[in-house]
Amino acid sequence: MRLFSSLCLVLLAFLGAVSAKSAVGDRLLVVLEDESQKALYSKFWTDLEARDFKLSFESPRTEGLSLFRHGQLAYEHLLLTPPKSKGYGPSLTPKVILDYVNAGGNVLLGLSSQASTPSAISSLLLELDISLPQDKSSVVVDHFNHDTTSAAEKHDVLLLNRPEQLRSDVSNFFGGDGTLAVPRAVGQTLGNASPLLAPILKAPVTAYAYNPKEEAETVEETFATGSQLSLISALQARNSARFTVLGSLEMLQDKWFDSSVKTASGTSGKTVNQEFAKQLTEWTFKEVGVLKVFSVQHRQVSVTSKPSENTTQIGEYNPEIYRIKNDVEYSIEIGQYDGTHYVPFSFPSNDALQLEFTMLSPFHRIPLSPTSTTANSTIFSTTFTTPDQHGIFAFKVTYKRPFLTGIEEKHQVTVRHFAHDEWPRSWAISGAWPWIGGLWSVIAGFVLFVLLWLYCEPPKEELERRRKLSVSNVK
Ligand SMILES: *[C@@H]1O[C@H](CO)[C@@H](O)[C@H](O)[C@H]1NC(C)=O
Ligand SMILES: *[C@@H]1O[C@H](CO)[C@@H](O)[C@H](O)[C@H]1NC(C)=O
């Protein structure tokens, strides 16, 4: 039995060593209806396989195709290519895809203006606040930023710089130099109400969406223009599952991976689509931008009510109860996944990680600062005094940023009031001395008076005089 368990351990360690680069798993389902399309993306598949992904290619018509097995995800990642027919069929309905995302699955949805997007998918995207043009064959064109080699006439192969730093260092997952070719893209517009949505690549200001099949001389009502149009959009659900809408699946084809392109102004060069495809899938399939909380600790660091005693009393870790006006230390250990393992996390200087001490609403909201690092994480901590209010409180850390998985930690504690023996004694308070003095002087005076009254005899002559008085009265 012992041997067996140690064998299991060795096996587990071995499995851990060869595990996928993605933080969540390596099974990727590619839904591809047309087998002949597969060869067009051979470099893309090779790149994914080189990063340890186990690719399964299935047609949406495959019997028994399911994203779930025994109630668990059958694949952690899903790549949807545009279907040839009207939709993906009964095994990939919008509801199934939403359930999949709710269960934590990551989706890369590739669109193409050549194949019209199924209306079920359009309405699914609409639920996520991403709108596609009504016009199914709409394509994004730009008369100033197109490739003059391959789209001299149609102007529908856009040449763009890679997105600039979306945010400083932590989530710059798509940046870099070089030119991207975005052929025949379906533009999307994003609702501005959802904090979960963010564009990855926006169209240039001179771009617009238009339907080449309409033989109109001028474009009257465009779906959207300029940077309103998003060519690639990202949605990170509340459970941190990722959903990327790629407006032009074609840009992942081998021929665009390092093709020579020539801008309208005459400069020519190679595209960096291959590297960008890697960045895009790294983010979507959770190889980057994944944060993990390793531990949360809080404890009492001093007793402030008894100044006469030694005031540095360190409490146990994570007690269930504190008292009002306790000094409390809170620390949280956060690591960031870097493709193979977790490394210490740091946020840019213009950002903050905050701790809230709340009962219905926060009584404290204080920044946490990095105090030490371990091999896999940074420890952020702070010290504060519990408020003068008893009740059920919670330590809360919420950190949600675009392109990073969210952190939401909540630990509930009770805050009690002072016990009767925890107040300082009256004589310890110097302000009370006049009253204590007054009280005790009255008591001492009274006792003195009683003693005097009881034990002091009146003088002899006085007694004589009283006796005489009473005798004469009787006569
Ligand atoms: C209070 O306790 C700490 C730790 O036990 C000790 O280092 C310190 O010297 C003590 N201070 C006093 C005033 O007794
Ligand atoms: C922690 O860091 C070490 C050394 O960098 C690494 O070998 C290990 O896999 C990391 N652990 C986790 C959980 O990422």
Bin the helical content: 10-25%
Named once each, the bound ligands are:
2-acetamido-2-deoxy-beta-D-glucopyranose
Q: With helices defined by DSSP (H or I, 4 residues minimum), what is the helix count?
A: 8
Largest sheet: 7 strands, mixed
Cα Rg: 37 Å
The average pLDDT is 86
Descriptive overview:
The chain folds into 3 domains: 267 residues; 126 residues, Immunoglobulin-like, CATH 2.60.40.10; 49 residues. It is an alpha+beta fold and 475 residues long. The longest helix is centred in the last third of the chain and has 23 residues. It is built from 8 helices and 27 strands. Helix 2 crosses helix 6. It is rod-shaped. About 3% of the residues have low confidence. Bound molecules: 2-acetamido-2-deoxy-beta-D-glucopyranose (2 copies). One 2-acetamido-2-deoxy-beta-D-glucopyranose binds next to loops.
Brief write-up:
The chain has helices spanning 2-17, 42-50, 94-102, 119-127, 254-257, 273-284, 433-455, 460-474, and strands spanning 27-31, 54-58, 68-69, 72-73, 77-80, 106-110, 130-131, 139-142, 157-161, 179-183, 189-190, 197-202, 207-210, 230-236, 242-246, 260-262, 268-270, 291-302, 321-323, 327-337, 342-344, 354-359, 361-367, 369-373, 378-385, 391-399, 407-416. By secondary structure, it is an alpha+beta fold.
Question: How are the SSEs placed, and which strands pair?
Answer:
Layout: H1 2-17, E1 27-31, H2 42-50, E2 54-58, E3 68-69, E4 72-73, E5 77-80, H3 94-102, E6 106-110, H4 119-127, E7 130-131, E8 139-142, E9 157-161, E10 179-183, E11 189-190, E12 197-202, E13 207-210, E14 230-236, E15 242-246, H5 254-257, E16 260-262, E17 268-270, H6 273-284, E18 291-302, E19 321-323, E20 327-337, E21 342-344, E22 354-359, E23 361-367, E24 369-373, E25 378-385, E26 391-399, E27 407-416, H7 433-455, H8 460-474
Parallel strand pairs: 1-2, 1-5, 5-6, 6-15, 19-27
Antiparallel strand pairs: 3-4, 7-11, 8-13, 9-10, 12-14, 14-15, 16-17, 18-20, 20-21, 20-25, 22-23, 22-26, 24-25, 26-27
Helix pairs in contact: 2-6
The structure holds 2-acetamido-2-deoxy-beta-D-glucopyranose (2 copies).
Main location: endoplasmic reticulum
Family: Belongs to the DDOST 48 kDa subunit family.
GO molecular function: transferase activity
